[in-house]
Design a protein that fits this description.
The chain has 7 helices and no strands. With 173 residues, the chain is mainly α. The longest helix is centred in the N-terminal third of the chain and has 31 residues.
Length: 173
């Protein structure tokens, strides 16, 4: 068992690793689309999914860093498959948006994810946000709208792909 300091360091290391891997993946994807002139976002997404599968296999089966969990077939079909499909759609649409708009604009649009999550929670589960939660979402919404209206490199397809990516992200949250 880890001490309090070790536990905090471990958690901070994981968060930093996640930020680094996420940021570097986005920048690398943009580099692939822009500099290498690769025009196949679906192929790039397929490569992502294959690499994630290989790394998961190595982590669970070979290195045994994470214990393998057995999931009944019906739960797998009802819960895991839909989440996986939404996740793949999110990654695919994020890659499509990177093909058309700058990273900064795509990331700005992705800040609408909490808004989409709240709306989907309301529509499908009847969840009602507190007044303070709604108030917190308003500046993000107006900020993204202002950013979209003033974006020098605005592209409708990139914009729509990023917005639908947010929608799919909100769906699996």
């Amino acid at each position: 068992k880890m001490s309090g300091t070790s536990s905090k360091f471990y958690l901070a290391s994981i968060v930093l690793a996640w930020y680094f891997s996420n940021g570097s993946t986005i920048l690398l994807n943009k580099y692939i689309f822009k500099v290498m002139e690769f025009q196949f976002p679906m192929s790039l997404t397929l490569i992502h999914m294959i690499m994630q599968s290989i790394l998961a296999l190595l982590t669970i089966q070979v290195l045994r860093l994470i214990e393998k969990v057995s999931i009944p077939g019906n739960i797998y079909l009802e819960k895991i498959v839909p989440i996986s499909l939404f996740f793949c759609a999110n990654i695919l649409l994020g890659n499509v948006s990177l093909n058309y708009v700058p990273v900064s604009f795509m990331q700005t649009l992705k800040s609408l994810t909490p808004v989409f999550t709240a709306v989907l929670q309301y529509l499908f589960f009847g969840s009602i946000l507190t007044r303070s939660a709604v108030t917190a979402l308003i500046p993000a919404t107006f900020g993204v709208a202002l950013s979209a209206m003033t974006e020098m490199s605005f592209n409708l397809w990139g914009f729509l792909a990023a917005i639908f990516s947010c929608l799919f992200t909100g769906a699996y949250r």
